[in-house]
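Continuing from the previous page of notes. For each protein in this section, the sequence appears first, followed by its structure tokens. Read the first protein now.
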Amino acid sequence: MKKSIIFIFVILQGVILLAENTLKIGQYQVSPNTEFVVQLVAENTDPFVAFQVDIPVPDGFKYIDNSAELNASRISGHALSASLVTGNILRLIGYSVGNTAFLGNSGTLVSFSLKSGGVPATFELILNQPLLGDSQSTNILSGSSNGSVTVLAPNIVLSTSTLEYGRVPLGSSAEQSFQITNTGSIDLTITSLNFNDTQFSTTEVSGFSIAPQTSRTITVRFSPTAKGTLSKQLLIGSNDPDQASSNLTLNGVGFAVNEIHTGSISGASSTTKTLEFTLNNMEALTGFQFDLNLPQALTYQVGTAELFRSQDQIVSVNQVNSQTLRIVAFSVGNKNFTGTSGKVLSLDFLLYGNAGSYSIGINNVIIANATGENIVSDSFGGQLNVTCPSLYSNSQLSFGDVSILSSSTLLQRVYNYGQEPLTINKLQFSNTYFKSNQTLPVTVQPNNYVDLPVIFTDSVKSTANGTVKIFSNDPNNNPFVVQLNGNAFIPNYLKINPPNYVPGESKNVAIEVQNEEAFVAMQFDLSYPIGFTPDLNAITLTNRKQDQILAAIALSNTSLRILVYSPGQKTFTGKSGSVLNIPFKAESSLMYGTYNLNLSNAMISNTKSENILNGTKNGILNVQITTNTQKITNNSTIKLYPNPTTESFYISGINGNIILKITNVNGKVLLTKQVTDNEKVSMKNMPEGLYILEIINLDSTFERKLIKK
């Protein structure tokens, strides 16, 4: 026997054949842990005398010993070898000692039995290294087809192994959920849901089914009736063949509610408010203790602690450090506080500080019963909300230059950007140069402002510096300091005092000096318009001079320089008035209007050669109509001819001189000049069109229209 088997292994070789000679296994469905028969089928065009195949036994399955047998209808003196080799592989070898072919061309060749596992799934039945040998020991196999077996069973999978409930107060409940999933191939039936502690429950009723590849959510409620830490079980029974019972761990803590709550305070800075504490207790208590962490804006008012719900309890409040209070309440006779909820303590605090929200912390909490046990379950801090005024203002106020002969008042604007009214009750100045006439106290509402007058006065030439401190009820900026400065000067001014002109007239332009300090010399440059001519040789000093000498230089046709000095260092007399006169002639061609006279590079010097000039004032030359102009009382006498005209026209019916202004229809002035009666006026360079003529005579203005062709 063994020699024949070895012979077959040696002689069978793979050859590519055109015939259809196949081995195959079909599809099977079985229940879990059930024996079933597997058939190996041969479909052959050509005769064969032997076969061999390895079939791995699926995981969880078992081969039934001695169950393999050849199909009697297809054998003729054939033998079968069936054995398990390494790896739980079933090796099947069929052969003929006499080299006789198997009978028929189709049908089962060999069958064997397996016992299924308990896991629902589809498992492959694989044909490894299959061979069909003919009488010449040639492998005539053209193909093979694997099979499969599906175990029909439910399979229970829990979404978690533990439900955590945490801390749950006595008399209340908490719920947690989990999912039961059926990953099997037939319905999963939940046969029982059993708890080993009555404090856990569910509204689900056992006996329900879950279809394959679906889930069901189960809610479990924890309702503690006694204090304690629990770790219990939910036992789940099902028709899962390999897991009939599943466990779910349930963890929770049942506790009695004995908790202290810190209240909240809202108020304006600089006010006193009461902070209250409430206590909710399921169990009797004789006393309590805690540390209160205070924000800087809170200051405890000593002696204001008051107990409530007490019998013989007393309370002690001690300052542990600048921001921590320790409160201890205890019973002399070991008696309980009354009731199970409500206020147990109040403390008064002074609110002082910046606006904002602050936390009031509580820690190291003890709630004691008659046996000294700490029965506290929780504690809660509070909140402080402070409102206050908020002063804002510029920190500097500069007066600049102020004459010693006068004073200057500026307004210091003070805003209140807070939530409470701002009260300014005091202004404190660092020296006498600065002061205020503001009536105090003054109140500024939120989001408003007040202007505080600040006055600077100094009768001596100097630079003054100082401060004003603004005292208020602002907890953050009190006092608010404003830096003050001002420059007191002695007024010494140089200015021009021009007369009114008519064309062709000569007049003196007076240069005046207003001085509080004595001066001995002066210098300046004077710019004047074209059409005015100064007589440099006729410039004279006034009777304010003593031994002063004057020099005048023409810098251009529109500017001159004046230099006045005293050989004997003598001062000009007086404190105001003209010091020199400059003759100017207005040309006859000048039009009426205003013209500027400007001073520059000016200085006046004292006996120490110091420039004591504080400022200059320029002048304006006003050119008027000639003095012989007479008022026109009847404008009907004014005639323009010829009208229309081609190049020029005449104007008649006027006495003396008038001002003529010609404007086009767009309002552009094309000509302004002084004319007399019957004077010819040229329009040679003006285009054809309609023109408006204004005839200006003293305080009267008349209008005419003229056409140029």
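Done with the first. The second protein uses the same format. Note its length before scrolling.
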Amino acid sequence: MRIIAAVGAAVLFATSATASSLLHPIFGDHAILQRDAPIALYGDTKAGSDVSVTLAATTRHVRAGADGHWQISMPAMPAGGPYTLTVRAADDEEQVAKDILVGDVFLCGGQSNMAFEVRGAENAQADIATSKDDGLRSLTIKTKDSVSALSSFANPVSWIAAAPDTTGAFSASCYFFARELRKSSHVPVGMVVAAWGGSRLRAWLSEGGLKAADLEPQDRPLLALRRTDPDAADRGWDAEWEAWWRARHGAGTPPWSPQFDASAWKTAPATLGPWAFWTGKSPDGFVGQMWLRSEVTLTAAQAAQPATLDLGMVTEEDESWVNGHGVGGTSGLPQARHTIPAGVLHAGTNVIVTNIFCSWRNCGLVGPAEARAVRLGNDTSVPLNQPWCYAQMADDEIAPQLPWGPAHGVSVIYNGMIAPIGPYGFKAALWYQGESDVHFAPAYERTLKAMLADWRGQFGTKLPFVVVQLPNFGPRPDRPSESAFADIREAQRRVAISDPRSDYVVTIDIGNPANIHPTNKQEVGRRLAAAVQRLLYRTDAPTGPRPDRAIYRNGNVTVSFAGVSGKLVSFSGNPTAFEMCGAAGGSCRYVEARLAGPSTITLLTGGPRPTRLRYCWGDSPVCNLSDASQLPASPFEISVR
């Protein structure tokens, strides 16, 4: 059988994941390969087949393994092209990819702010209208979760050149970065975008990467069990969830028990729907968890049948019980359906309880009322039309999340979106994520370090990373207070400065306190490009002031900054938003700050000797320290010596 890739001039050619896999789909028409490094090419054919690979004027040969997979290293090439890539195997099998360029390729990963499209950015129409550039190309990996690591993409992928009819759908942060970089590098730039809105960091690491860092020790075995015995995995998940609740609340009667006294719970509207609209909470923001409870009456004949609990559409994860027996959890599915074990139902009143976690909006049982029912084995249903009562959990109570949930589970996004890339060559990785980890901030630094190590295991030990610090979002602080957003920013800073092949960019000044998706992605891209230029091309692109040290002497603290362009500048008066703090967990207080030199500030402590110094702390702090570059000083927390 002879298979030849379509070779038309259309830049929108899509390489199908279900077509011949002789050549991995990422090597489709219009692909950009990484310059100045050996080029890994790979694919699949018949076991033991001889494979010849020709790229430009170079041909090499390799034999496929017992599993049919082949991989070969082609010699490094300078920037240039276009070239043709041809692969031939047994039985006249052939695949051709045309219009291949060689340049710099970047992997752009994260959650919704990386997925945010150019068409939604400020001044988008003008940028789109002038975007034609055949040397700037993007490949977007569609969202896909998997409990097992995939070897190729589950959906078709395509390399697409920037043009007025295509650029609007590109990742805005990644595109504006690449556009800025093209101005100075003058080589083709490729973007591989793997982003999933609302995703947690742990979903982006392989199981091996989590294990190596001893992360998620309870959930890794459950994910593995899910592959072979889903019912047993559900029971294990029930036990983990219930153990979490009991560890916090003791041995009292749990809310999922039929014997629990729910008389103090409020009654929800009959239509249910997003709970924000009937609890008086904003529909946006991180809204936590809710208990919901109802009853259904069955006859003895109905209770004896095989049955499924159907909750309709749940936003976004549920853990559910029937008569006190856990029936598992679901996440991100069109319908939350749970098999009810035999013997759990009985004649008379049966108690249905669900606990719903939601990280963003439209939280609750949001499907139509008729979707909620107990489905019986004889194809009949008993509707869940009795009143539902509810109780909101405390704001600081965030239950464990489903190990195989698509956005919050362990390794599921890595398995579906990163593993399928294979050992493709990249110049660097850009990472813009963290909002969905605010409830789990203490683990973020360790997990991000583990992700860097994990991805380097796949893409090369020297892969550079640039991390986008979270922007300002949420209330402005009027007093020193704790902030999970600030904790995530600090974790991102610490990971970047501890890794010689990493850097970070500050966005605390270009967010929107009322919108978690700020639209000034042009500036995000510009700052990413500057970081890459510093990190990879050894330019002196500015960083903005970054903390160096804080020294206590004679009742005051002197703070020194590195990376200062020209001299420190304080807009609208003396520097603000500096806090002196006691030991970890101790109280903090705002202190007066004064410029003391080109790169130093004096803080007047006016109280006990501090052990920690914080700057620009909070969800949306107002910070006015900069330098001649007009880039903001980095938010930070450092020790006082």
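What the second structure shows: The chain has a mean pLDDT of 94. DSSP finds twelve helices and 35 strands in the chain. We return to this in next week's lecture.
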